[in-house]
Amino acid sequence: MPQRQGSLDQAPSGVPLQVIRLDQSDLSLKLMEMGCLPGEKVEILHRASGGDPLAIKVMDYVLGLRAREAAAVWVSWGDTPLRNLWNSETP
Amino acid sequence: MSLPQIFLAGNPNSGKSTLFNALTGLHHKTANFPGVTVESLQSEMNIPGIGRATIVDLPGTYSLYPQSQDEWVACHALVNAAALDVPVLVVVVVDAANLNRSMLLISQIQELGVRMRVVLNKADRVANPGLKGVVHWFEAEMKTKALACDARKGLGINELTKEWSRVLSLPLEEASHSTKGAWAASWNRVFGQGLDVQGQGSEEIRTQHSSETIDRYRRINQALKTCPMHETKAKAALPNGPDRILLHPVGGMLVFVAVMALMFQALFAWASYPMDGIENMMLWAGEYLRQIIEPRSQALSNLITKGLMPGIGGVLVFVPQIFLLFFFLVVLEESGYMARVSYLMDRNLKKIGLNGKSIVPMLGGFACAVPAIAATRNIVSWKERLSTIMVLPLMSCSARLPVYALLIQFAVPEGYIMGIFSLQGLTMMGLYLIGVFAAVLSALVMKFWIREKGPSYFMLEIPTYQWPVSRNLWQVPWRYCLNFVQGAGKVIILVSLLLWVLASFGPEHGLKDTLSGRSEAPSLEKSYAGVLGKALEPVIRPLGFDWKIGIALVTSFAAREVFVGTMATIYGLEGDPEADGNERRLKERMQRDRVEGSQEPLFNRATVWSLLVFYAFALQCMSTVAATRQETRSWKWPLIQLFYLSALAYLASLAVYQWSL
Question: Which member of A29, A46, A55 has the closest CB to residue B210?
């Protein structure tokens, strides 16, 4: 799979994703507090009906958030080597 | 305030409250609400070598930049802790299996210039050698001491208090990392006056906080490189596999409905045994007291056995149901299921102007609206929070249970469908559903009517499943029942006594005459209470209520549960003293009553349904009015709430009665 990027609400489920950046908004501080930081690995675990809200795995826990909030998170996925910038763990 | 203060801070779901309960047992000052630390809960505890200390359980927060009311409460206490003139220790409780995310709060608190210690909680969920490495890392890298504990099992608690005792006796300079007060001052400039309803202040401040947070995370992650965190990989207590069904759009909803059905079925079926027991016990005690007191003073005996005892009985009899209800709520909250329900319901609740987080207060509303109104504080959007508060009293609270339980017997026969579902239990569930339905419609009206702006979002940690702590399963319901009996009990006893006085004397039967035996006690109709009920009758006649029910409506205005006590007092006064024990039961006595001038039972189906609907909708609770006043900081909202719920109750009752005649 070639490398792709897009907003988190549009990303595929069950695939390792990596956060690239956050759109600056009133949500970004809260998103960061909850672990959605540039460089972090995330994965979409569940989507409710209509894709909203969604449950993602981030920083080893499960976070539920609305699609509108996920839209502020830009992620990449595909065959680029995923490396967590900060965690000691590599996939 | 002269005692040393210990503040428990930490992320939501870090097990902070479990640690607090393990440290303090049953002795709390404020009532807690299942799972949610609403107020800052306080207690006193013994610290070896220090003596008594106040311990405060702060609401959970992820950082010191608050975005909701409950986060603000926690942050405000922490930031101003250094300014207190008693020794203060901040204990940051951390989920050992989720260290990464807690570091933000730890590093911010380190800059507050207070004594701080870290607790690595849920130690049972991580591998032990890894934990030792993390403790060492905290000492070397973060220059702070971390201690592991398992609050659920109560392991490691002694070591914690020993260390806290040591830290509290050290001079501040040795015990804290910085004594800089600048941070606190700037925090107070931005947040000190509380959160404005718009959220988090200006764009400029938000940007500043964002970049500060990124910077801080960069430093944290640099430091975390040497932390043997990966060796503490969580051994999940229960697998998250069930989420495939429980978080499924359709399956999850079905499970939720089934769980609710089970809860109400149990509430009706299981609680009836202890309730019968309590009722019989009160009858026996009343009779016993009557035999002792009556030979000495007829008036005193009447006051106690006909005024006081029915009132107390009315309170005690529904303690088992309240206990069970809170028990269920604790199980739902502690197991991690409640967060999943929030997630599942967010989409639908958003459509009616509420938030997924509204589900916790709304389910809590089934227990009691008062703590539930305070539990809305973690809803970020002021509009969503206000709507939740406004519709909350429509969730049938435990105070309605005895009213429903008493009245349903007149409207629905005993019996079972398919051998397992009791008809009366299903009716009870139906009444709860009517309330929920009215809440949904009211929320929709509020959505278009309330003009408040502000950000709305839903970000919620979905915790790992875990078995509820057995201690909390009985402690939390028990504490609440105790609170209920003491708080509501006072009101009910007072109202019962007042009612007894009003019902025993009348305009033509003076107090002195009756007490001295010169005059017979008046019939209920001629008493002050009767006169009052008669005056109200024209207004409530169209709903099918007579003057006796009118008396009960007046007395239960302060608190709905008084209805049952009032009925007990009214029918106790009128009761046939020669009746045998069984006949003395309230139900039989009410059944025998007839509509004046006819053979129609007073509690016929139309009247009872009308009464049930009235109690489902009406806001007959002073405490709720007070709670709404406190949370909205105005009289406007509680008055609107009172008015719209009263109108709704009256019109719905009118419709039901006229239709079922």
Answer: A29
Task: Return the number of other C-beta atoms located less than 10 Å from residue B193's C-beta.
Answer: 9
Distance of alpha carbon B447 from alpha carbon B304, whole angstroms: 50
Asked whether residue B401 is assigned to any structural domain, the reply reads no
Q: What is the pLDDT of residues B306-332, one digit of tens each?
A: 777 776 776 677 788 778 888 888 898
Query: Is A86's CB within 8 Å of B225's CB?
Result: yes
Residue B558: per-residue pLDDT: 73
What pLDDT was estimated at residue B34? 41
Q: Across residues B553-567, what is the average pLDDT?
A: 81
Short-list B326, B391, B398, B328, CA closest to B368: B398
Q: Answer whether residue A85 shows pLDDT above 70.
A: no
Q: Among B184, B213, B232, give the residue marking a domain's end.
A: B232
Name which of B222, B230, B457 is nearest A66 (Cβ-Cβ).
B457
Domains of chain A: 4-77 (2.30.30.90)
Is A30 within 8 Å of B460 when comparing Cβ atoms? no
Q: What is the domain count for chain B? A: 2
This prediction's pTM = 0.81
User: Residue B73: its pLDDT value, please?
Assistant: 84
Q: Encode pLDDT of A50-81 as tens digits.
A: 888 999 999 888 999 999 999 999 999 986 55
Proportion of chain A in helix, strand, coil states, percent, rounded to 5:
20, 35, 45
ipTM reported for the complex, 2 dp: 0.85
Looking at residues B410-426, what average pLDDT do you find? 81
Domain end point (choices B232, B262, B296)? B232
Residue whose entry in the numeric block shows the structure tokens 């900060």: A86
Residues B148 and B297 occupy one common structural domain: no
Residue B624 domain-assigned? no
Q: Distances in Å between the alpha carbon of B573 and those of B105, B295, B310, B499, B506?
A: 62, 19, 11, 11, 14
Find all residues with CB under 8 Å of B428, minimum gap 6, and list them: B264, B267, B268, B404, B405, B408
Q: Does A33 touch chain B (CB under 8 A)?
A: yes
Structural domain includes residue B204: yes
Q: Which residues of A touch B250 (CB under 8 A)?
A: 49
Contacts of B107 in chain A (CB under 8 A): none
Domain range for B570 is 270-317+472-603
Contact A42/A17 with Cβ under 8 angstroms? yes
Instruction: CATH number of the domain at B194, please.
Output: 3.40.50.300
Q: Which chain A residues are closer than 8 Å to B100 by Cβ?
A: 35, 59-60, 87
**Contact flag B97-A60 (C-beta cutoff 8 Å):** yes
Name the more confident of B565 and B575.
B565
- Give the mutation candidate from A23, A30, A83 for the B interface (greatest B CB count, under 10 A): A30
Same domain membership, residue B159 and residue B12 = yes
Quote the minimal CA–CA distance from A89 to chain B in Å.
Answer: 7
- Flag whether B205 is in a domain: yes
Task: Tell whether B85 and B221 lie within a shared domain.
Answer: yes
- The reply to whether B277 and B221 lie within a common domain is no
Mean pLDDT of B562-585: 64
For B462, the 3-state DSSP assignment is strand
Together in a domain, B228 and B274? no
- Tens-place pLDDT, residues B36-67: 444 567 888 888 888 889 899 898 999 998 88
Q: Which of B14, B200, B347, B357 to mutate to test the interface with A (most CBs of A within 10 A)?
A: B347
Per-residue confidence band for A19, with pLDDT thresholds at 50, 70 and 90: very high
Distance from CA of B159 to the nearest CA of A (A): 28
Radius of gyration, alpha carbons of chain B: 28
